[in-house]
Amino acid sequence: MTDQAAFQRARSTQAKQIREAAILDAARTLGGRRGIREVTLTDIAAEVGMHKSALLRYFETREQIFLDLTAQGWREWSAALRADLAQRKRAAPAAVADVLATTLAARPLFCDLLAQAPLNLERNVSLEAVRTFKLGTLEEVAGIGAELHRLLGLTEEQAVDTVATATGLAGALWQMATPGPLLRELYTSDPRLGHALFEVEPRLRRILTALLISFGSAVGGRDSLSPAEHRAGSVTDS
Q1: How far is it, in rounded angstroms, from Cα 144 to Cα 94?
Q2: Which DSSP category does 178 fall into?
Q3: DSSP assignment of 59-103
Q4: What is the tens place of the pLDDT at every residue in 189-202?
């Protein structure tokens, strides 16, 4: 926790940016440790070493803090995903699904935020904050869509559907796969409920593979990949 005396009111743009970064870092730490739903504005203020009233000079609500973290998560995930796809000259649907699934599953906090954003984060901030968040997300989706079009020949609508499915499922599956201690104990103790405990990545990969193969079948497949290549998810550089 940062010493509260160090967090006197910021009197310059740079100082304000430093304060905001510290608040976001504190929220990120707490969210990763407890889960987004369990973190209050008071918790964040205490973690960063500020009084709650002082924190509200930098962010209008708790939800704005986490919505900003969601926007950061979109930029970071999109950059990692596009960097991986950009290295590939040709890819089967299963290979692209694998990259989507692994890059999302590697970001549990982002998955948590993806579920929380439409449920509550967007509902307690200004309309301008929502506008900024949505436009930023659309920009990242467009960048991902360009790679999906290049590799698989997806239309703009198909690319948007793919990203929406990947991120929506990642958020939902993460919530289901990370029950609290009491629920986990219940699922573990009763064999009939064992199916409730699962790993996000393989399930997400299977669903996205089926989706992308269906899109390829609908348009005839840009690269004329054989059924064996679809199943294996092979990637061939040429």
Answers
A1: 16
A2: S
A3: -SSHHHHHHHHHHHHHHHHHHHHHHHHHT-S---HHHHHHHHHHH
A4: 888 888 887 789 99
